[in-house]
Write the structure tokens for this entry.
Amino acid sequence: MDAFSLPPIMLPLLINAIILLITLLYGCREDIRERAVPVVMWYPAAAIGIVMLIWFWYSVITSGDLPYMMPLIPLILFFVIAFYLFTRFHLMGMADTKALILITVLVPCFPFVPLTGYPLFGFPPYVFLPFSVLFNAVVLNLLLPVAFFMINLIKGNKAPLPYLFLGYPVKGETIADEFGIVMEQFEEADGTLKRSFIPVRAAIKDMLAGGKRVYTKSLKENPTQYRKELELYKKAGTVWISYGVPFLIPITAGFLTAMIVGDFFMGLLTLIAP
């Protein structure tokens, strides 16, 4: 089936994609600033999306293309249930799940790219957009440690090698305005401040145990409880924290790259076997 022969069918999906992209970009902005995404943000995209979705499936049925689109229905159901379970078992935040479910339901297959008609890598065999979005998002998220490593090298930040991939230093006096997890521990004795990095293995163990890690968000919300820590951080001058990039950002980047560039997995296969 040639995608160019179906502009009336793909138009509502393209409208949904544009509305969703605007919504996701706004959500990223709020997630970075407040570490929370307002629920009402999703309402306009959902309302417009449902209308466009009705238009899309009506066009599919009346054009006789339902047999071609039928495989999308079980895929949509499977991915929606999977994303819901991710949140239920605390593997993903609620905002991330809402974003992925809306993408899955409202833009189940690749819409037109106005200038080229196709993503640069072409359509993958399954032409199921949500899978490409998720795969691209995971790849981009995995590249973040490399990006932070390069930034730390360029800025000349000094730390043991693993920490160069996992975080970056911030000003101790404004640490409560940052987002991440404190990677150092401090002790003051006889006017001397001692600092050391928390071992990576111990940090992971603490997080899995629900434990004792200090989140910068907690410093902002409970300054009285963390008064001693805040004083030590201020005296230290700089404090290393782990990066806290909301997954909504890779999802948004994965959505945008999937529509313009295409599926990263498909691109990798093209490079290996043109």
Summary: DSSP finds twelve helices and four strands in the chain.
